[in-house]
């Protein structure tokens, strides 16, 4: 995997190189919605829609907070990939340690503020008291994992920036495997419910962090190390923070859209909120299928930018898009044919099952409407064109808000799901429109 000055400009992008990153990372990412399904299924066995709604609302607040810091993964991937393309091994290490330092500071602050986030989440959701109580328990416990989670983001970003999909798969499998096992033990067998699901996450994140740090430290012992001055270089931090600011705004806008989606679902009643939570897990499954190829686009596009190689860049865009659409079609067919059975596995509530089955086609087609958005995000993250990604996300959020205001009151939950499709389509098409201009300027 070590790049040299002799070969940084000569790499070729093939189906094999795309799949070498995408396949293991698709499997890795699939463990995350699988974890979400397990969490929902464990709590769903108690047969209480309020607990399901509280878990969904708590997960949303957690995602708003943590996805806001997703730049520690995606920003690190883009910067490491470009350093890899240039053959600058010292900068690869320096990028990782800068990200880890940011992760430690931000994680400690988030953990300390967990009670405030719980109160703010209850106020924002405006759900019934029992839903709010369950949500508060989940948030207060799960945010204790903040430092571990953010360090794991940085480590995964470094691994993916170097195109090491197999190692990324192993780290994610360990993290989510421990989490899933503890969910069953603490949440179901010991009867801790929502609290058990949250403590399982805290433990899994901590153990995964220890493993990831052990791997990178073992690797770095064999390499020349960057100086402390280089790691703490202020211009490099300013560049990283500028990139991260744009990605953070983009991520916050994305989560704000999902927050509005969940809040609007809550206004339709607790049963509809729970049904939408079940279906959103299926959307996440489709999304994580697509994220594997988006990750391939990140690494290959970033490497091409670093090597100033236009032909591999264009080939990376083309191949990841072809594979993304193929996989999205398969995911849609699977959800259309087997979705009702999956809903029955997730919850024992007959009311929730009936509502979820009625809106299942909306969730199934999110894969096709979102494939371009996922793939374009990967290209723009790898190329570190963060400003364009931020601006197009804000445009998409405005389109989603307009659709939500007009469609949800008129068509109820159908209008809510239609608004989500509008959001996904505008994201992908707007970035595609900007891409041609950016390619011309990047390689001129």
Automatic annotation (TrEMBL):
**One Pfam family recorded for the sequence:** MatE
Q: Where are the transmembrane segments?
A: 18-38, 50-72, 95-117, 137-161, 173-192, 198-220, 247-265, 271-290, 321-347, 359-380, 392-411, 417-435
Q: Which CDD domains match?
A: MATE_DinF_like (cd13136)
Keyword annotations of the record:
Membrane, Transmembrane, Transmembrane helix
Give the taxonomic lineage as stored in the record: Bacteria, Pseudomonadati, Pseudomonadota, Alphaproteobacteria, Hyphomicrobiales
The family classification in the record reads: Belongs to the multi antimicrobial extrusion (MATE) (TC 2.A.66.1) family.
NCBIfam families for this protein: matE (TIGR00797)
Where is the major localization of this protein? membrane
List where in the cell it is found: Membrane
Q: What InterPro entries would the database entry show?
A: DinF-like, MATE_fam
What membrane topology does this protein have? Multi-pass membrane protein
Instruction: Report the protein name in the record.
Output: MATE family efflux transporter
């Amino acid at each position: 995997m070590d790049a040299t000055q002799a070969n940084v400009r000569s790499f070729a992008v093939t189906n094999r190189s795309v799949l070498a990153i995408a396949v293991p990372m698709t499997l890795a990412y699939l463990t995350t919605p699988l974890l979400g399904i397990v969490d929902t299924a464990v709590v769903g066995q108690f047969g209480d829609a309020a607990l399901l709604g509280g878990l969904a609302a708590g997960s949303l607040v957690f995602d708003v907070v943590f996805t806001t810091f997703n730049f520690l993964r995606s920003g690190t991937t883009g910067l490491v990939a470009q350093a890899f393309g240039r053959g600058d091994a010292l900068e690869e290490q320096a990028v990782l340690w800068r990200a880890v330092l940011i992760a430690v500071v931000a994680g400690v602050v988030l953990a300390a503020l967990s009670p405030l986030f719980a109160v703010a989440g209850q106020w924002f959701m405006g759900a019934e008291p029992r839903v709010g109580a369950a949500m508060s328990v989940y948030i207060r416990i799960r945010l204790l994992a903040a430092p571990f989670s953010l360090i794991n983001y940085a480590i995964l970003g470094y691994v993916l920036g170097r195109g090491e999909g197999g190692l990324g798969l192993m780290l994610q499998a360990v993290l989510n495997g421990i989490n899933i096992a503890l969910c069953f033990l603490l949440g179901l067998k010991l009867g801790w419910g929502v609290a058990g699901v949250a403590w399982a996450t805290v433990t899994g994140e901590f153990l995964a962090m220890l493993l990831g740090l052990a791997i990178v430290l073992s690797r770095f012992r064999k390499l020349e190390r960057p100086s402390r001055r280089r790691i703490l270089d202020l211009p490099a931090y300013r560049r990283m923070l500028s990139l991260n600011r744009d990605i953070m705004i983009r991520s916050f806008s994305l989560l704000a859209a999902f927050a509005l989606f969940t809040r609007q679902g809550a206004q339709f009643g607790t049963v509809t909120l729970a049904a939408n939570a079940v279906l959103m897990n299926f959307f996440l499954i489709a999304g994580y299928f697509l994220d594997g190829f988006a990750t391939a686009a990140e690494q290959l596009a970033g490497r091409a930018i670093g090597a100033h190689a236009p032909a591999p860049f264009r080939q990376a865009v083309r191949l990841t898009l072809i594979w993304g659409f193929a996989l999205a079609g398969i995911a849609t067919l699977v959800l259309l044919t087997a979705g009702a059975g999956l809903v029955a596995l997730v919850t024992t509530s007959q009311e929730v099952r009936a509502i979820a089955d009625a809106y299942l086609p909306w969730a199934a087609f999110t894969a096709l409407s979102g494939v371009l958005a996922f793939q374009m995000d990967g290209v723009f993250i790898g190329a570190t064109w963060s400003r364009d990604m931020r601006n197009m996300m804000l445009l998409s959020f405005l389109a989603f808000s307009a659709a939500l205001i007009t469609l949800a009151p008129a068509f109820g939950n159908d209008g809510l799901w239609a608004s989500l499709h509008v959001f996904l389509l505008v994201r992908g098409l707007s970035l595609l429109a900007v891409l041609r201009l950016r390619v011309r300027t990047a390689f001129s």
